[in-house]
Design goal:
179 residues; mainly alpha; Four Helix Bundle (Hemerythrin (Met), subunit A); 6 helices; 80% helix
């Protein structure tokens, strides 16, 4: 069990949030175009699953939340439980977006409209979620725990989930949309 500095972890997570908010803006712009590029949409849906959920939520759940809990911050009945539940909602929305993407690629014209609707829900959900973490949860944890025990490191989770690759993919697609 290693020790992690809480403020270091929250600063990395805030950087992740900046990337995620950028990806949400690109997803909105891509799906708002009259003829969305299927490859761009798929990359952004995969970003939601691979970067947002596996990498970013992995750091939150396995490093920050677990460490904060070990330092005395309650896991249940408080903001961590709410955030973990919201992660589940995000996972569900990302899975539905992927299913709708495949239906759209298979020729279902209605699936694109539904995909855009689910993407808007996902964008709203994650935007609000990030605001709560940045402005409520992270400051609460930072004020109560300065170091925490964790079985994994931020770098280990980022490496396991191809953090750098997904940031490069986001940069590539965002550039096409001027974001």
């Amino acid at each position: 069990m290693g020790k992690v500095r809480v403020k270091y972890v929250t600063s990395v997570l805030r950087e992740h949030h900046d990337h995620i908010l950028r990806a949400l803006a690109v997803l909105d712009k891509a799906l708002s175009s009259p003829s969305p590029d299927p490859d761009d949409v798929y990359t952004l849906v995969q970003f939601a699953q691979r970067f947002v959920d596996a990498c970013h939520h992995g750091v939150e759940e396995y490093v920050l939340f677990q460490g904060a809990n070990r330092a005395g911050f309650p896991l249940t009945g408080g903001p961590i439980q709410v955030m973990v539940c919201e992660h589940g909602v995000g996972r569900y929305l990302a899975r539905v977006m992927e299913e709708l993407y495949h239906a759209w690629k298979s020729g279902d014209k209605e699936a694109l409209r539904d995909l855009a609707d689910y993407a808007r829900i996902y964008i709203d959900h994650l935007s609000q979620h990030i605001d709560k973490e940045n402005n409520v949860l992270f400051p609460m944890i930072e004020s109560t725990a300065h170091e925490a025990s964790s079985s994994k490191t931020v770098e280990q989770i980022e490496r396991e989930n191809d953090h750098e690759r997904w940031i490069a993919e986001l940069d590539r697609v965002a550039k096409k949309y001027g974001l």
